[in-house]
Amino acid sequence: MTVVTHVLSIPLEPGDARAAERLRASLEAVCAEDATLTVEDGPTGEVILKGISEPQLEWVIGYLQRQPELAFQVGMPEVQYRETVTRTLEWTYTHKESDPPQFAVLRIQLTPLIRGAGIETEIRCPSDEIPTHIPLADFQHAIDTGVHAACKAGVVDGFPLTDLQVVILDAGWHDTDSTPEAFEIAARLALREALPRARPWLLEPMMVVVALTPEEFMSDVITDLGGRRGKVQNLAMHGSIAAITALVPFANLAGYDNDLRAMTQRRGASTMAFDHYSEVPPRLDSEEALPLRLRA
User: Fold this and answer.
1) CA distance to 5, 51, 147, 282, 292, per residue, from 8 (Å)
2) What is the mean pLDDT of each run of 10 residues along the chain (296 residues)?
3) Fewest 10 Å CB contacts: which of 16, 85, 107, 165?
4) What pTM value is reported for the model?
């Protein structure tokens, strides 16, 4: 099964509850026809559309706007960054509540993983340090649930966390008020406290771009890709047509199809696909870091 990585999202804001129902129904119908699209509810009543490219979302929005019964505003698109940690860290957290009584102590270790590894949890407590009154499967489930809840939003800019291992090194408990719920909360809050201390970092989606251009415009296309922080991976000639393959940050590809056609007198074309997430350079210019904008 192929996992789809949604690199761009855009909020659609319906006028009222009835308009929201119609918009959601139309979007779900579109998503049913295209498995690379998805839709979810936003935090303030908006509907979030996610996809794999700028032209794809432009087409969907244009299609929806041609339906007079759908009244909505289009919000600001957002590149779907990720967050991770860049150093190993141990942290101890004590969760204690009096009403209802809850108690749980966890000593955790955060470790960065290779790109694409996702989120991993592991229990390394000696068997005599795991709560004896909680089944191991329930204890593991509580830890997993708490960790994944904390990973939904990072501490750099609120993007989901990835490529992180959370190891439970030790646990403390009481016989009466140390419940699976208490350990779930402890895992979530321990991670939230530890993250800022583990040198969190922003990851950006990198795209494989294949640009086709007549040979006479080849140097201009390569220079333009370099200006987008792209790195050329391959160059092949097919007669008088150059096929340039490059890795380019998605945030710097806004309007690329139109720009390529303009610099090649409308004779160029391109395709792109997600490749991997990569750390955002530490001295990225603020202008480059601006959110990707869809063209009107």
Assistant:
1) 9, 6, 25, 22, 8
2) 84 90 93 94 90 94 92 93 97 94 96 96 87 93 98 94 97 93 98 97 96 97 96 97 97 94 96 95 55 38
3) 16
4) 0.87
